[in-house]
UniProtKB/TrEMBL annotation:
GO terms for biological process: cell division; kinetochore assembly; mitotic sister chromatid segregation. This is Protein MIS12 homolog. One of its GO terms (cellular component) is nucleus. Keywords: Cell cycle, Cell division, Centromere, Chromosome, Coiled coil, Kinetochore, Mitosis. Belongs to the mis12 family. It is found in: Chromosome, Centromere, Kinetochore. Residues 108-142 form a coiled coil. It comes from Todus mexicanus.
């Protein structure tokens, strides 16, 4: 069998010429074996009808196998010549023939160096795309963080606006004075809370003693 891959022929036919020849070979070989079995059966039948025949079926089988081997050797030689002719003259696409789907290569030819340059450019573009995709993902993550920070800032601004409103209602317009005022009031509240807790403890003790 031919070792030439014949890829262009496979593109045109949809199968490799070697595969076609192999199937033809197997088909002829199977047919040869079937014919020999039929011939052997006819011989056995004819000899069985002859009176006094001393040829045994095993002898006939050995003779059939020898004849089959002889036929197969000649068949292989003939098939080898047939395969050579078919692969060269029937299943072969000449070098000057271009398939319709490959006409574009004739209109826009390119060298191996140009093809390699194109492959390098594609690889570089893929790397740039991956880098941009990674940068875009990092920017989206940073944007999410900024949204969280912005939400916190808005809360602080709302708290500051509320604090200013309280200060205005209290008659204090300066933020520093307002903060001092709030701090003073907080200390008063803490003192009152501490006094209430001490009184509560005393009342509990008195109840326990009574």
């Amino acid at each position: 069998m031919s070792v030439n891959p014949m890829a262009y022929e496979a593109q045109f036919f949809g199968f490799t010429p070697q595969t076609c020849m192999l199937r033809i070979y197997i088909t002829f070989q199977d047919y040869l074996f079937e014919v020999m079995l039929v011939v052997e059966g006819v011989i056995l039948k004819k000899l069985g009808a002859l009176p006094g025949c001393k040829i045994s079926p095993s002898q006939i089988r050995r003779s059939t196998e020898k004849f089959l081997l002889f036929m197969k050797e000649h068949f292989d030689k003939l098939f080898g010549k047939m395969e050579e002719v078919l692969l060269q003259l029937v299943l072969n696409i000449p070098d000057n023939v271009l398939l319709p789907e490959d006409k574009v290569h004739e209109q826009y030819p390119y060298s191996q160096e140009q093809f390699q340059a194109l492959q390098d450019e594609i690889q570089e573009l893929q790397q740039q795309y991956r880098a941009e995709a990674s940068a875009g993902q990092a920017l989206r993550a940073e944007l999410e963080e900024q949204k969280v920070v912005q939400a916190e800032l808005e809360k602080i601004l709302q708290w500051y606006d509320g604090l200013e409103n309280i200060c205005r209602e209290d008659g204090t317009s300066n933020f520093k004075e307002s903060f001092t005022f709030l701090t003073h009031n907080c200390k008063k509240l803490q003192s009152v809370l501490k006094d209430v807790e001490e009184k509560s403890k005393r009342i509990k003790k008195c109840k326990q003693l009574s």
